[in-house]
Write a structure and sequence with these properties.
With 370 residues, the chain is of the alpha+beta class. Helices cover 49% and strands 18% of the residues. The strands form two sheets. The protein has a six-stranded antiparallel β-sheet with strand order 1-2-11-10-7-8. β1 and β2 form a beta hairpin. α2 runs antiparallel to α3. The longest helix is centred in the first third of the chain and has 47 residues. The chain starts with a helix and ends with a helix.
Length: 370
Amino acid sequence: MPFAIVLAVLGIEFSPAHYLVTGPVLTTTPALAALTMGPMGTLSTAVLAAGVNAASATYNHSWGTLTQLITGNFLGLFVVSVASVILSNAMRTRRQCELDQVRRIAVAAQEVVLRPVPERLGPVRAASLSLAAGTGALVGGDLYEAVQTPYGVRLIVGDVRGKGLTAMRAVAVTLGAFRVSAHYEDDLTEVMHCCEASLRRETAVPGTYSQEVLTEGFITTLVAQVPDEQVVLVVNRGHPPPLVLHRGSVQTLMPDTPLPPLGLEDLVDDLTAKAESFPFVRGDRLLLYTDGVIEARNRDNDFFPLPETMERVGASTTPREFLEELHQALIRHTGGRLTDDVAMILVDRLDEDTAGSLHTSSTASPSSNR
C-alpha cells in the first residue's frame, strides 16, 4: 500500500493534474508501512516519500510560489515518520516476545511427548534426533521412542501425515499406547496392534479430528525389538526400512510383505502382520529414521544419500556423535532448507567388553560418590 500511494503521487505530479496537492497523501505512507514493515522498511518508505516530494516540487517549479506549503509537507512527513518508526519498533518487539513465548510453550510440549532416548538401554547404546521443518516450526508430526522391557529393547519410529496440533495429538496417542504395551505384550505385533487400536478409539470420538484427517490421515510406523540374541525383530507398517551398518557396509532391512500404514487397514482384505528377524550382531549400528531424511533434496533435486553417508561417518563415534554427523551432512545437502520433519534413532549393539565396562562403571559410580 505505501508503494502504491507513492506511485500514484508520482503519476499525478508528473502529469497535467499536478495542480492537485499530494503532499498530505505522502505523509500517510510511513504510518501505513509501520503496520506491516519493520523499522528499516518504515524509514525507507519515509525517505522515498521525501524524495518524491522534493522531486515533484522541483519538476513543477513550486519552490518559489509554494515554499510554505512544501515546508509544511516535509514537517508533517518528518513528524509522522519519527512516530511510525517508534511504533514499528514497538510492534516488532511485542511480536517477537509473543513468538518467543509460543516457541517456549511448543518446546516444552514437544519435550514432554518426544523425550530424548536414554544413552544406555540394556545391550545397546542409543541416541535420538528430531528436527521440525520450516522457519520457526517446532511441533512436527514425527515420533520416536526407545524403552527397555523384559523382552529386550523396544523402539518405535513413525511419521504422521500433516503437521501442527492435529499431528501432535496423533503422536501423543501412538506413543502413549506404545509406552504401555511395550512392557506387557510379549509379541511385537501386538504392540503394533495396540497402537492401531488406540488410534481407532481416538478417531472415534466425535469432533476430535476433521473429516479430511479421518478420510486421508495415516501414520507410517515401525516397531523394532533388540533382544539379547544377535538379531533385531521388526514390524513395519508402511515406513522406510531400517538400516544396519555392519563392518562399514550398510544393509537395508526390507520387509518380505509390505503392510499399509496405521489408519489405512481397510484398504487391505487380509492384514496379517508378523515380526521379521534380521541379523544384528555386536558392533553393528541400527538406524531408524523418517522419510524426511531420505527425501531431502539439494538444489539439483538429488535425494540425500543416507546409506553412503552412514558408511563415510567414522565407526569410532558415539551414537550421539554419529547422529550429529548425519545432521550436519543433511544440512549441507539441503543448504539448511528442510521441507519435511526429520527424526532418527540410532542404537549400537555393544560387544561383551564394552557392555561389561559400562556395567562396571555404572555400578561403581554410586560408591565413589559416597
